[in-house]
Every structure is written in structure tokens, then in C-alpha cells.
Design brief:
The complex is a heterodimer.
Chain A (H helix, E strand, L loop, with lengths): L2 H29 L5 E2 L3 H17 L4 H17 L2 E2 L4 H17 L7 H7 L3 E6 L6 H14 L4 E6 L6 H12 L2 E3 L7 H15 L3 E6 L7 H14 L3 E7 L5 H12 L4 E5 L8 H10 L3 E5 L7 E3 L2 H9 L1
Parallel strand pairs in A: 3-6, 3-7, 4-5, 4-6, 7-8, 8-9
Antiparallel strand pairs in A: 1-2, 9-10
Helix pairs in contact in A: 1-2, 1-4, 2-3, 3-4, 4-12, 6-7, 8-9, 10-11
Chain B lengths: L7 H9 L8 H17 L4 H17 L8 H17 L10 E6 L6 H14 L4 E5 L7 H12 L3 E2 L7 H11 L5 E5 L8 H14 L3 E7 L5 H13 L3 E5 L8 H10 L3 E5 L7 E3 L2 H9 L4 H16 L2 H5 L5 H14 L2 H7 L8 H19 L3 H5 L6 H11 L3 H22 L8 H7 L2
Parallel strand pairs in B: 1-4, 1-5, 2-3, 2-4, 5-6, 6-7
Antiparallel strand pairs in B: 7-8
Helix pairs in contact in B: 1-2, 2-3, 3-4, 5-6, 7-8, 8-9, 9-10, 14-16, 16-18, 18-19
The chains are: A alpha/beta, B alpha/beta.
Chain lengths: 316, 438
């Protein structure tokens, strides 16, 4: 992940370093007197910023975020007093690092495991568009919680999509966990309600509610999700979407948040051939923290989202 | 993204392009920049956007807008043309027996699309069946079966079998004698060698007539890479966009088409099986550009271009045969009164209305006569001798004299036009030529 962006940023950093170093030697020659420190001008930076902006866009970073990143890097570069003898490349790398960390960090970070340990039963509702990987993500989270010795029950509240119940059932079977289901076309809120009741009766720690994927533009289906949320009163509402999505990602998060409310995000399909830009822009644009990223098809293929780790991946 | 916000910059800057004959450089740069922004925000591949806008910029600068089109409309038309050259004007599905393979990664709606496509063909009277070779995703078979049951179309799958090829072979056996067979292949989260090998084998056994890549409207910059990988592996023949009911603009599909050099064929517009449309360039591109009134502009452009094709300048080009003469007569009728035509040819002169009226009647008769000729006769009027004249007269319901008169007029016109072609002024005895029309 981020391979493309990583190469590009490396290249741009090198170019800025080269230009800055060249400037240093020219100044020395002309003025004969050795300049101790100097700054680089806006024009000198601008020619690299277009490259950077394009690279970010090509990695699926949302446009506004791409512009914000370029703006911040530019401002920081212009303020920097480069000194003779220092490692210029390192200084520039640090500017990139600080900027990206700034963009990626969210003050609202949530630790799911911590929340589950404090509430019983902890009800987590998963929502998001079709095909983002909600059901698989629920199985992964169930697996993760079971490894921490929490008991889990699944609610098959996607009563709409063909074979969705069978799909969740298959996961429940493989993971040996309980599942509450009704038939297709049944009220998703009622399924959630039954699962919570069952969790309370059996002393189960956590209820994971699978809902039907829907397009944010479909008012009726979104209304149905609101009803599930009203009835289940979930401890957490987690939005699941895929890293493959382009600029619509940010807009979707905003619309789901407005309609139903979102506490955190899980971004799926962050596997190798994905550019991963959505992971960079989503928090900046929506203020919602990314909690986990999905990186494969096995139950273990889920990683906590840590800005430091992500930034070190991008910068190498 | 709400339509009001999306592409607002583009609409804003385009509205500033004036009707001035030469487009303002600063404004052009601004327009190109906003166009780039809009397309990138619609998820079109960035490199593609840069290449395409470079071409658009050159064309806007070098091409003169056709008469009747403002600079602004011309700009939009060029943008539209460039986009259409990538995604195709519109799809005309072949309603005939065929085998279709659907490929794509997870979550883009391959299985739903399989059912939608099956219903599309079944509704048009073809005996249709579906096969799923997805041995990966839990309940993949159940999903297709439930959809198939809903629309009354048979489906085949083997939930316990792990080898997609043996499923496919058994499925093909089961559905011998069916007209249309649609195969839903397995996806993966991302493309890997294993998936490519699997699809490759499926294609070898199935020998599909069509191989469509199914791609969500929300897919970002990865779309072109995916299209390339699938295209290299099995050779795509089209792209189906799904989830066009979301707020996504579907620009990824455009990149995919450009990469694989195939058109968009169908568009999925919702979760229900009937939410499925044949691809139409106007609707798709209007949405991509956030330009709602594209359709009325385009019909205006088409009208103008049609006239433009038959312009007097055009007539002077090429060899002068009865075909050209005919085209000229056709054009004359479309261009309006003869006096106007002469004016356009730079031959304004005083001819009485009565004369013109008579001439127009003559033109109409000539047209009817030429309609009755064979292609060969039109190309090579010299071969028209007595027996042919008789036949043509009979066929057109006109007199033989009239046919002869037409041939005479044609030869005269031919001489005149060959002179005009050489850049000479029209003969001064043009009025005598006009009189002959009477």
C-alpha cells in the first residue's frame, strides 16, 4: 500500500534537496562570502508542488486534502532556514512527516477493545455502502474480540441482499459464534433487538449488527438504518467503506454521518494494489477517526490504524 | 457530492467564455484548469485528464467554432467529443445467442449485474441461464440462486465444489440449447496472479463472445490499473458501471475504458433487478461534468453540423458527379431559398422571385429523377444512353425530355464548378444558366 505515493514523494524530496543544495553553492560563489543560512522562495517551491498535488490526486487523496497538504508543506518550507552543513534532505523529509501526521491524526480516536471492556453488552452497529466489505469486516472484528476473550453474538440485520444471511451464517459457523437471524424482508431493527435481548440473557459481551449496504442517496433505506440505530441504541456506530473508492468516499462519510451518525471508520481493501489516498484524506475532511484497516481476506487481516505507522509507510 | 457544488467551478468559468471569435487565453487556461479539477474529482485517472485536457486546449485554440455555435458551446462540444472518443457514443446490444463472462473485484456488483443482464436478454425473448464459478465468497451461489428464482431464470453453481472449471463445464452441459449464458466469475479484494489464472482458464473453456469488466461508479484511481490487468489477461470487450445511483460520478470507468480501449455497455442504477440501463453517452457525460443541460446543447450542435456538412465550400471539393450534384440539390433544399444559396456562393444577383420559384420546382424534379438512377449511373453519368433514359423516366414518373435536360444541366454545372474549383470567378453568363432552369 502507498507504493506509488511513496516513490513519488521520495522523488520530489530528492529534487527539492538538489535544488536547495545547488542554490547554496551558487550563493557561495557569487557573494564569495559564505551565507550561513538561507530560505527558498515561493517560486522555487511551486514547481514541485504541482507534481506533489498530482501525485496525491493520483493516489486517491481527496482534492481539498491534496491542496491542504501542498499548502502546508509549502508554508513550512518557506519558513525553514536552511543552514550550511546540515542534512537538507532530512529537514525536508521531516517537513513531509510533520505535515502528514498533522493531517492523519484525529483527536477523537476510539479503541474498540477498550469500549467493549467497559460496556456490557457493547452494541456495535456496522453501516456503509454496498460491496464495501461490511460482513467480512464484522467477522474480522468478531475474531479480534474473541482473541481478547470477549464473547460475541452476530445480528443478521441485512435482510435485503440476496444470500447476505447465509454469508454471515457461514462466518458464524467458521468462528463458532451465535447468530440471530430472521427471514429475508424482515424488519432489520427487530433482528437487532432480538440479538441484544439474547446477549443480555446469556451474558454475552458484544453484539455486532450487520446492516444492508446502501447508497447514501437512497433516502428510504437510510431511514431504515436510522430506525435500527434508534431501536438498538448502539454503543458505537462504525462506518465501513473500501479504500478503492475515489473522491466520493469523503462525501459518503459525511452523508452517512449526517443521517445516522458515525463514531469511527474501518477502511477495507487496503491491499497492495490500492493507492490508499482515502486513508489520508478521510479524517481531515470529515473529522472521523479511522479505527482499523482491512488488508486481506483472512480473519487476521485487519490492522489498527496508527498515523505514525501509516506515515512511516508513506515516507519509507 | 451534491450536483450544485460539484463542478460549480467549471460551470462558472465556462459561463464567462464569451462569444468573441478568439478565445481569451487567460479564460481558456482557467477553463482547462477547472475541467481538470472536475474530472479528477469525478475520479478520472489523473494522467488521462492531463493528456486529454492538453488535446482539448489545442483543439479549442486551433479550431474555429462552426457557424451558429458560440465559443462557449464550441468549448463544451470539444470536451464532449474527447470524452466520447474514450467511452463510446452509446451501446447497441446484440440481441442474439451469446456467451458473456463478467469479471471484476469484490463488491462492485458482479452477481447482481449477472442477474440484471440475464433479465435483459430473457425479456427480449432469448432463453437465458446463469452460472457462478465463485468458489471463494461465502454464499456466492445462494446469492445468484435467490436472484435467479426471483426473476425466473435458471442458475447453476456447486457450493461444495472448489474447482471453478469443473463447475463451469457442468454448468455448460446443464444449459445446452440455451441462447444466452452469463458466467459470474469469482472476484478478489485485489487482483492477484491466482485470480488472473483462474479467469484465464474460465475464458479458455467458455470462449465468451463478450467479456465485461464490472466496475463501481465509486472506484477511484485504481480503475485503470484493474482494467489493464483484466484486459491483458482475458481481453475485455466492454465495461459495465454499477452503483450509478450513488453520488459517485463514475470517472473510474472512463479511465478503465481508455486503458482497455473498450466502450461502456451498460449502467446499473440501483439495487433492484430492473435498475439497469443501456449506456448512453449524453447521460453519462452530463453527469461526469455536472452539466445538466448538455443534451439540448448537443442537439443544437448536431443540427448545425449537419448543415455544415453540406456547405457550399464542401460542394466545391472532390470530383463532380451526379452524386455531388444530387447532394447539392439536397443541400439546396435544406439551406432554404435558392437566392440564399447563391448569396452564400458569393453570387448575389438580381433574379425575380418568379424565376426562383420555377427554378426550385425544377430542382425538385431533378432530385426525383436522380433518385431513380442506379449508383453506377450517378457515379458515371456518361453511361446513361437511350435505354437507360427510358427506364429512369419510367421509374421516376417524369418525361424523357426532363431526364435529358437534367443531364445537360449536370454537364453545364460540372463545367462551371470545375472552373470555380480552380479559383476562378463564376462565369458571367450565370444568369443565362439560371434561365435554363426555367
Amino acid at each position: 500500500m502507498f507504493e506509488f505515493l511513496k516513490d513519488k514523494i521520495k522523488d520530489i524530496t530528492k529534487k527539492i534537496t538538489k535544488q536547495t543544495s545547488a542554490k547554496l553553492s551558487v550563493k557561495t560563489k557569487i557573494k564569495e562570502k559564505v551565507a550561513k543560512e538561507f530560505t527558498i522562495s515561493e517560486e522555487e517551491i511551486d514547481r514541485f508542488m504541482w507534481d506533489l498535488e498530482i501525485s496525491l490526486l493520483e493516489s486517491d487523496v481527496a482534492r481539498d486534502t491534496a491542496e491542504a497538504i501542498c499548502e502546508e508543506i509549502k508554508t513550512r518550507l518557506m519558513k525553514t532556514k536552511f543552514k550550511r552543513g546540515e542534512n537538507i534532505e532530512k529537514t525536508i523529509q521531516n517537513i513531509f512527516k510533520d505535515t502528514l501526521l498533522n493531517i492523519l491524526s484525529s483527536p477523537k480516536h476510539i479503541d474498540i477493545v477498550d469500549v467493549v471492556s467497559k460496556t456490557k453488552p457493547c452494541v456495535i452497529m456496522f453501516l456503509g455502502p454496498n460491496g464495501a466489505g461490511k460482513t467480512t469486516t464484522i467477522a474480522k472484528i468478531a475474531h479480534l474480540l474473541m482473541n481478547k476473550n470477549f464473547s460475541v453474538i452476530l445480528a443478521a440485520s441485512d435482510t435485503f441482499r440476496a444470500a447476505s444471511i447465509e454469508q454471515l451464517e457461514e462466518h458464524a459457523k467458521r468462528l463458532s459464534i451465535k447468530l440471530v437471524k430472521h427471514s429475508y424482508g424482515a424488519d432489520p431493527a427487530a433482528v437487532a433487538f432480538d440479538a441484544i435481548k439474547s446477549a443480555k440473557a446469556r451474558g454475552i459481551d458484544c453484539v455486532l449488527i450487520d446492516t444492508a449496504g446502501r447508497q447514501e442517496t437512497n433516502k428510504n433505506l437510510i431511514e431504515e438504518l436510522r430506525k435500527v440505530a434508534r431501536v438498538a441504541e448502539p454503543t458505537l456506530k462504525i462506518y465501513v467503506d473500501e479504500a478503492l473508492a475515489g473522491n466520493v468516499l469523503v462525501e459518503r462519510v459525511k452523508q452517512f454521518d449526517e443521517a445516522v451518525g458515525i463514531d469511527g471508520i474501518i477502511l477495507t481493501k487496503m491491499d497492495v494494489d490500492v493507492k490508499g489516498g482515502g486513508a489520508i484524506s478521510i479524517t481531515k475532511e470529515t473529522g472521523k477517526p479511522i479505527l482499523y484497516i482491512g488488508v486481506g481476506q483472512e480473519y487476521d487481516d485487519i490492522e489498527p490504524f496508527e498515523p505514525e505507522v501509516i506515515v512511516s509507510r508513506i515516507l519509507g | 457530492m451534491p450536483i450544485s457544488k460539484f463542478a460549480a467551478g467549471l460551470r462558472n468559468v465556462i459561463s464567462k467564455i464569451s462569444g468573441a471569435p478568439i478565445i481569451d487565453e487567460t479564460l481558456l487556461n482557467q477553463s482547462i484548469r477547472e475541467l481538470q479539477r472536475t474530472l479528477i474529482q469525478a475520479d478520472v485517472n489523473v494522467k488521462l485528464v492531463l493528456e486529454m485536457t492538453k488535446r482539448i486546449r489545442e483543439r479549442v485554440k486551433s479550431e474555429k467554432p462552426p457557424k451558429g455555435l458560440s465559443q462557449k458551446e464550441h468549448f463544451i462540444k470539444i470536451v464532449y467529443d474527447e470524452l466520447v472518443s474514450l467511452v463510446g457514443e452509446g451501446h447497441t446490444p446484440d440481441i442474439k445467442p451469446q456467451k458473456i463472462l463478467l469479471v471484476g473485484t469484490y463488491g462492485h456488483g458482479k452477481t447482481s449485474t449477472t442477474a440484471k443482464l440475464a433479465k435483459f436478454f430473457s425479456k427480449r425473448g432469448l432463453k437465458t441461464a446463469m452460472i457462478t464459478t465463485d468458489t471463494w465468497r461465502p454464499a456466492a451461489y445462494e446469492q445468484l440462486k435467490q436472484l435467479g428464482d426471483k426473476i425466473n431464470i435458471p442458475s447453476f453453481g456447486m457450493p461444495e465444489e472448489r474447482d471453478p472449471i469443473s463447475i463451469l463445464k457442468k454448468g455448460l452441459d446443464t444449459f445446452k440449447g440455451f441462447d444466452v449464458i452469463i458466467v459470474d466469475s469469482a472476484g478478489r479484494d485485489s487482483i492477484n496472479k491466482e485470480l488472473i489464472d483462474e479467469i484465464n482458464k474460465i475464458a479458455q473453456v467458455l470462449k465468451p463472445d463478450e467479456t465485461y469488466l464490472v466496475i463501481g461508479a465509486d472506484m477511484g484511481q485504481t480503475a485503470s490499473k484493474q482494467a489493464k490487468q483484466f484486459n491483458d489477461a482475458v481481453g475485455l470487450t466492454g465495461v459495465i458501471i454499477t452503483k450509478m445511483d450513488s453520488s459517485a460520478k463514475g470517472g473510474g470507468a472512463l479511465s478503465a475504458c481508455a486503458e482497455a480501449k473498450v466502450p461502456i455497455v451498460f449502467i446499473g442504477t440501483g439495487e433492484k433487478i430492473d435498475d439497469f440501463e443501456i449506456y448512453n453517452a449524453e447521460r453519462y457525460i452530463s453527469r461526469l461534468l455536472g452539466y445538466g443541460d448538455l443534451s439540448s446543447l448537443l442537439s443544437k450542435v448536431r443540427e448545425i453540423v449537419e448543415e455544415e456538412e453540406l456547405s457550399p465550400e464542401e460542394m466545391l471539393k472532390g470530383e463532380f458527379t451526379l452524386k455531388t450534384f444530387y447532394k447539392q440539390l439536397e443541400a439546396t433544399r435544406k439551406m432554404g431559398p435558392l437566392s440564399k444559396v447563391l448569396e452564400q456562393l458569393g453570387l448575389s444577383m438580381k433574379i425575380s422571385d418568379e424565376d426562383i420559384e420555377k427554378s426550385e420546382e425544377k430542382l425538385r424534379i431533378y432530385k426525383v429523377i436522380i433518385d431513380s438512377m442506379t449508383e453506377e449511373e450517378r457515379k458515371n453519368p456518361d453511361i446513361i444512353k437511350k435505354s437507360r433514359i427510358e427506364r429512369i423516366a419510367k421509374g421516376s414518373g417524369r418525361k424523357e425530355e426532363e431526364v435529358r435536360e437534367l443531364l445537360k444541366q449536370f454537364n453545364l454545372a460540372k463545367k462551371m464548378f470545375s472552373k470555380m474549383k480552380k479559383g476562378k470567378r463564376p462565369p458571367s453568363n450565370l444568369s443565362s444558366l439560371m434561365k435554363r432552369f426555367r
